[in-house]
Amino acid sequence: QVQVVESGGDSVQAGGSLRLSCAASGYTMRPYCMGWFRQVLGKEREGVATVRTDGTLTYADAVKDRFTISQDENKNTLYLQMNSLKTEDTAMYYCATRLSGGYCGMDWNGFGSWGQGTQVTVSS
Predict the structure, then answer these.
(1) Staple 69 to which of 49, 53, 65, 93, CB 3.0 to 4.6 Å?
(2) 50 pairs with which residues across the strands?
(3) For 48, phi and psi rounded to 5 degrees?
């Protein structure tokens, strides 16, 4: 069974940086797509960034040029480097995978194998 565990969330000042990690295990085949999503209580979950097996990266407009998604295939770990953090980045951040091909976008409905999330709080 696929499992993902996020870590690295913290409370930081606006303008600061954080690096989130997602450890994935239990795969019998490499996921077609892995991504980061976030959710504020009471709002819908939104896509942040995804990476496809061929290395194609996709970012939400709100985080372009500030966040960088990357992965260490040997360690089955996904990362999200977040720079120039803003108060509006405050959210629970989730890692998710999609095993089959065909989609690697920002819609969270296209993903399964969710982690428990890691909280990021950015204060002014």
Answers:
(1) 49
(2) 35, 58
(3) -115, -55
Task: Record the tokens describing residue 16, joined without a space.
Answer: 């600061």
Point out which residues pair with 85 in neighbouring strands.
Answer: none
Judged by phi (left if over 0) then psi (alpha if -120 to 50, else beta), residue 86 lies in beta
Q: Which long-range contacts (CB under 8 A, 24 or more apart) does 22-25 make?
A: 22/77, 22/78, 22/79, 22/80, 22/95, 22/115, 23/75, 23/76, 23/77, 24/76, 24/77, 24/78, 24/95, 24/97, 24/113, 25/76
Burial label for 99, CB within 10 Å (0-12, 13-18, 19+), is: middle
DSSP state of 105: S
116 CB-near residues (< 8 Å, 6+ apart): 5, 6
Reference 2, options 107, 114, 111, 104; nearest CA is: 114
DSSP β-ladder status, 77-82 and 46-52:
unpaired
pLDDT, tens digit, for every residue of 80-106?
Answer: 999 999 999 999 999 999 988 889 999
Phi, psi of 63 (to 5 degrees): -120, -5
